[in-house]
What does this fold into?
Amino acid sequence: MMNCKANKSIECTVQQCANHCGSSNYCSLDCVHIGTHEANPTQDKCVDCKSFMLKG
Ligand code: SF4
It folds into this structure.
């Protein structure tokens, strides 16, 4: 993302996301929406960033 404004409160390593700050591992959004795809989440892999957008 050009002129990415890294939000130092949201670390993220998902380079494929359009909201990711390429050179640094932070999200550029002010706020992200976290959710789950499972009925009873028990591990970190059970939760997802719902603000993910595939880099175009
Ligand atoms: S929207 Fe979610 S997945 Fe995308 S960079 Fe931000 S925290 Fe990472």
About this structure: The first strand starts at residue 7 and ends at 11. Residues 33 and 46 are 14 Å apart (CA to CA). The chain has no helices and four strands.
